[in-house]
Design brief:
The chain is an alpha+beta fold. It is built from 8 helices and 35 strands. It is 16% helix and 29% strand. Helix 4 (397-413) packs parallel to helix 5 (439-455). The longest helix has 17 residues, at 397-413. The two termini are 48 Å apart.
Amino acid sequence: MKMKVPFLAEIFALLLLIHPLLLQAENLPRCEHPRPDLLRANWQCLNGEWEFQVDNKPDAPDRYDQKITVPFEMESPLSGVSFQRAEKYYMKYRKRFSLAPGLNSNGRIILHFEAVDYQAQVWLNGNYLGEHIGGYTPFSFDVSDLIRDSGNELIVKVFDSSHKSQVRGKQSSTGTGYSIWYTPTSGIWQTVWLERVGQSHIKNYQAFPELERGEVKFKFQISNPGAGQKISIIAFDPEGREVKTNLQDIPAENSRDLIWKIQNIRLWSPEEPNLYRLKFILSDEKSAVIDELESYLGLREVKVKDGRVILNGKPVYQKLALVQGYYPPGIYSPANDDAFRKDLELLKEMGFNGLRMHQKIEAKRYYYWADKLGLLVWEEMPAINSEPPDMFLPAGKKWREQFEKEWHEVIERDFNHPSIIVRVPFNESWGISPEIYSPVHSQWAMKIIKLTRELDPTRLLVDNSGWLHRDTDIVDVHHYLPTAEKSELFYQKLRDPRGTYFLLTHSLIRSAQGIPTLPPLYRGVKYKGQPIIISEYGGFGFYKTEPKALIDNYREYTLAIGKYAYIQGFCYTQEYDVEQEKNGLLDENRNPKVPLAEIKKVNDQIGQ
C-alpha cells in the first residue's frame, strides 16, 4: 500500500516544527516542538505563567501566592520566583487553561512532561493521574476522558531535596555552587504540552541501521493496536525528494520488524549530517489513516576495530569539548532554542567534531541540533553520590534501583539520535566507588554495564569514564597534569594501560600537585586493544598549570596528545565557564576568550 499524503499537510507539519506557535494562543516561552523526532501536527504548549508556591513541609495549605514562568526552574531568574532555600522543597504548580481549537477532535489526548526535578504528582480537574520520580526523563498521561474544551485545572506537586544519593549529577546539595558543583535546580524545567494522537497510535519506534546489508530495521511500539491495522512509511532524502522504499506494510499487532532496503544511501557524519525525513502512517483495515507521525533518521554505524573508532567504515578521530549544560540566567533551561544551536555552532567553529555531555541529560532539542549540525555526542548519566565525601560511600539499594530506572528511560528516549555514538553510565566511579571493596556494588556496576549493552547495541559503551574500566569499548582517561611535559610522559605510559597509575591535580583535593589516583583498568582486567582517548584534560584557569596564555596552554597540551598515534581523540575541559568554574574556551555568556580561529587552527593539526 502506498498512501499519498497531501502536500499542504506536509508543509503545515514542517511549519509546526519551525514555528509551533501557530497552534498557540499567546507568545509562550520555549514552545518550539520538544520532540522533533516524534512530531505530530496537532499539539498545544502549556508553558508560560503558572500559579505557584514553595514550602518546606508537604502539608502546607494551598495559597498559590506566586507566579512562575514554566519551563524555568524556580532557582532560575527567568522563572520570576523568589524563595528561601531549605533542605527539602515542596512545590505546587497550578495551570488553568482551555484546549486549542481542534485539539479535542477525533483521537486521544496525551499530557506530556519533558522533565520535572525530582518527584512529581499530577492532577487534572481533580483527578489524580499518577507520579513520576526522576529529574531528567519525560512522562505522560492519557487525559482523553478527563479533559474539557475549557475550564481545565492542572495541578503538579513536586518534591525535591538536597539528598546526595538522588540522581543529581553536578547539582550542588548545599544550595549554591562551589568547586566543580553548581546551582541546583528544582521543579518543572522542560516543556509541558498536550498532543492529539489516534485512538490507536504509534507511541515510539527504534531504528537499527545495518549498512552492510543496506537496510534499516524498525521496531514499533503501538498503543491500543487493533485488528487489520497496518503501518507504512513514506521517506524523503536529505534534499526532500521522496524515496522509493519498496516497503511491505506490516500488521500493527504483529511484532515482526519492518525492514527498509535503501538504495544510494546518504550517510550521516559530522562532515555531512544527512538526515532522511520519515512519515509513519497507521491505517485501519479500510486504509483510512488513524495516526500520523513525522520523524527523521540519520544513517550511520559506529564500532571499534584495531584500536580505532570506526564511523561508517572509516576511522574517526574524536575532537571533543566537555559540556555541562548550564545557561545563565536559565541555569538548566536556556532562555530559547537558539542557545542550543549556538553552543553547537561554536564548537564546530572551533574545529571540534563532538562533545561529551557531562553529568546531565540534555533536552531532546539539543540532540536534534547535534543531529542536524553534525556533532558526535557522548551521553553520560548523572551520578548518584556525586559529591564528596559521599562519592566514596556506597549508595543504598533504593537509589541504585532509581538510577537503573532513569538510565533505562534515557536510553529509550534518545535511541534514534544519530549524533549520540557513546553511552556512559558512570563517571570516575561516582556512586560506585565501593566497587573496589564491595561485592554488592561491584555486581551492581556490572549489571548496569550489561544492561546498557542489551538496551542499545547500536552504540559504543564507556563503562566508567576516567578510570577502572572493566567492560568498555574505549579506554578513556582523565588528567589535569600541571605541564605539557608531564602530560607527555603520562601518554607514553598509556601505550599499554595495564596497571598504569599516574599523578594528577584533582579538584576534589586542593593540595595542588601530585594526587595519586586510580589506574585506567580495573584489577585483573586485560587490555584488549581498545581505542584510547584522553576524555578530560586542560581546565586552564581553574586547575593549576603553567602561567601561560590560554591559547598557548591549549596549543601545547592538545598538540602533545596528537603526537601519539595510539591515542584516538581528546575531550578538552571545557567549552564554556560554568559559575565559579572559570576554565572554558568561552565565558559563561559564550563570549570567546581567544579567537575561535586560533582554537580551530590547533584542532585542525590533529587526527588528519
